[in-house]
Structure formats: structure tokens, C-alpha cells
Amino acid sequence: MKKATVQTYMPVLSKVIESTEKMGEELNPEFEKLRQAIDNDAVAQMVPAEFNDIQMEFSDGTEQYQQNLALLKKAAAPARLIGRHRNLIAAYEAYTNACAAMTNSIDIEKQTIDTAVFDQAEKDQEAEMGRISNNVQRIMSSVM
């Protein structure tokens, strides 16, 4: 079995982080529209096509996060980073699950949002993104 090295691990980690940041930037305006509609109790007044598009974009984003998670799980971390890598995987998986929960809280048919699920998913995403960032920083500082 080939030994895991920093040179093989870091490009995978970088790709996942870049992809996550890019997807977050793309989805944030859509999230803000939903957040505003929820806060103003105006979800039912949203344009149905826009509501549908937002849900589809959230689905695409969740799919991307699941692909990133699969990359992380397949990545061979160097021995000294295994613990932090496992912590990163756990945080990223929880983040991905929170994104899926948010996506699933959007009901296209009825044009409604399960706000309790949406709000909890938002809190969970924030908490897990903090854990992801913390773990990435620790991995980076270990490598430097």
C-alpha cells in the first residue's frame, strides 16, 4: 500500500475547500431570498419559478457537498493528520446533512418551507462550518 503523504493529501483538501467556498458563495443569494421570505412571512408570495429554481440550486449544492465528502473520505491522510482528518470528515458530513435538511425543508408542490427544519439546518450549518474551518486550520498549521 502506498504511503499517504502531505503532497497527495493537500491537493484533495484544497479542492474540497475551494469547491465548498465557491458553492457557498453561489448559494448565499438564494438563501438570503428564502430567509427574507420566511422572515416576512411571504414564502407563498414568491414567484413559483424562482422558488423552484432555488430548491433545485440547493439540491445541486447538496449534491456537490456529498461529492466533496466522498473525496474527503477517500483521501489518504498522512499518519500525523489522521485524527484531524477524521474530525474534518465528521464535521463535513454533519454540514452536508444540514444542507440536505435545509433543501428537504423546501416543498415545491405546496410552495412552503418547514421553517423549524430550515432554521435548525441554518444553525447546524453555521456550527459545522465553524468546526470545518477549525479543523482545516489545524491541519494547515500541522503541515507548515
In short, what is this structure?
This protein is 78% helix and 3% strand.
Q: Care to describe what's here?
A:
The protein has helices spanning 6-39, 48-74, 82-104, 115-143; strands spanning 106-107, 112-113. It has 144 residues and is mainly α. The chain has a single domain (6-143), classed as Four Helix Bundle (Hemerythrin (Met), subunit A) (Up-down Bundle). A two-stranded antiparallel ribbon has the order 1-2. Helix 2 runs antiparallel to helix 3 (82-104). The relative contact order is 0.14. The mean pLDDT is 95.
What share of residues are in beta strands?
under 5%
- The helical percent reads over 70%
Order of helices and strands: HHHEEH
CATH class: Mainly Alpha
What structural category do the secondary elements indicate?
mainly alpha
Task: Tell me the CATH topology.
Answer: Four Helix Bundle (Hemerythrin (Met), subunit A)
Oligomer: single chain
Q: Summarize the main sheet.
A: 2 strands, antiparallel
Record the strand order, biggest sheet: 1-2
Radius of gyration: 17 Å
Detail the poorly predicted runs: none
| Shape annotation | elongated
**Total number of beta strands:** 2
The total count of helices amounts to: 4
Q: In total, how many domains does the architecture comprise? A: 1
Mean pLDDT: 95
Cα(first) to Cα(last) distance is: 26 Å
CATH architecture: Up-down Bundle
How would you summarize the topology of this molecule?
Blueprint lengths: L5 H34 L8 H27 L7 H23 L1 E2 L4 E2 L1 H29 L1
Antiparallel strand pairs: 1-2
Task: Kindly list the characteristics that best describe this protein.
two-stranded antiparallel sheet; 3% strand; elongated; mainly alpha; 144 residues; Four Helix Bundle (Hemerythrin (Met), subunit A)
